[in-house]
Amino acid sequence: MNTAQFTPAGTLTAEDLGRIHLIGVGGVGMSGLARLFLTRGLPVSGSELREWPSLAGMRALGGTVHMTHEPSNLDGVDTVVYSSAIPQDHVEMVEARRRGLRVLHRSEALAAAMTGRRTVAIAGTHGKTTTTSMVTMVLQQAGADPSFVIGGEISEVGSGAHHGTGEHFVVEADESDRSFLIYRPYVSVITNIEADHLNTYGDLATLEAAFAEFARLTDPDGFIVTCADDPGGRRLAQTLRAEGRRVHTYGEAADADLRLSEVVSSAQGVRYLAEIDGRSLGEFRLPVPGRHMGLNSASAVLTAYLLGLPVEAAEAALAAFPGVRRRFERKGVADGVLVYDEYAYHPTSMTLAMRTLREVAGEGRLLVVFQPYRLYRTRDLQAEIAAALGLADELVLLEVFGPGELRQPGEGSAALVEAVPLPADRKVFVGSWEDAPVEVARRARSGDVVVTMGAPPISLMGDELLAALSARAGDAGGSAATGG
Predict the structure, then answer these.
(1) Which CATH architecture has domain 3-106?
(2) Is 172 among the catalytic positions?
(3) What is the pTM assigned to this prediction?
């Protein structure tokens, strides 16, 4: 996508937008933005075609939701906000231009909301939603009351956005369409850099160059945080330091500025020791498992430390961190089967998630219900995605979720399932949504862990799986489902 489509952050404020309408308001990113505007007291409407869980909260805050897409939804509207998932020929986009309304990409509207605040922007191929949530909770624990917009909901808070009274604005910066280049952060955090969104960038070198450009937009009085354990992050730090920029690193690497040691992960959570410049910061604990979760939390610790916040606030916030919805989220138990939901769709994050789920499963098996996200990614990374799915004991595969994409011959999940290195009787491609719960109920045994993983719609399947397992239990006289 051409960067010139986006207007860099300037003096436009949220209040300048007038009456705001968001197309596709039910998505995680758009619903968070709607909530932010509503809590600032701004008039907000949106349009959707599916009753996403976030819409009830929007209505409760006084927002208007149209369950259709049509020109009349724009009556009385001053600014129309769209995401990269909305095509330019969408009926409401066409009508907005016809009426001469202000039309902003989601990132441009978000930049307006950040005007006058010190922005802490978290970017990276993996872990940015969790890291943004952790940074937010640390700032909250320290009494800073930050504003925030996150690409997911903090489980304890139940929200992905908030209008705070403090000077900081914590935001998840999306590199997928280059829109993160419009922000002007005070702090830039880059968790890692791996090949993804190559439909936008073409190759890894161009992607890395975009992350470097993002980092260079950081306020000279602020700082940049990268991961010393990630090859892309390490290369970026070396490049930026050679330019004289203020860069701080974290990780288990011996030369990391904030160094982790004695990292232990189990089904009960993860803990580690941290030191900076040879000085011990003590032990940090999280109630969620996974070494990668510990690494994400280290970036939050380092950011808080460099902002001058008490280390004790970071310790307390992380010890109480409840996780993020769609990131290792426990949905419930039915007939002895534990059901989770996980957003991972890139092979690296899929692998990390499944290794962590194996810690939870113990002696049980791991069943994965996967919906690939985007045809280009499924095509370009088919071998890597297939290898990650091969870590499962059983696989139920749905068709690729790729709104707006045209499927070419030989593309999609039918080709992917053949590439997964599992025996034929332990993997299946299902042609319809309704077939997936039936397959899970047939395959899962008591003591197993089932995870729905991948594109956003799959998050809606957890309750259906629990219902199918409960129905099976009822037929056999077993136990019913319990919530997370």
Answers:
(1) 3-Layer(aba) Sandwich (3.40)
(2) yes
(3) 0.69
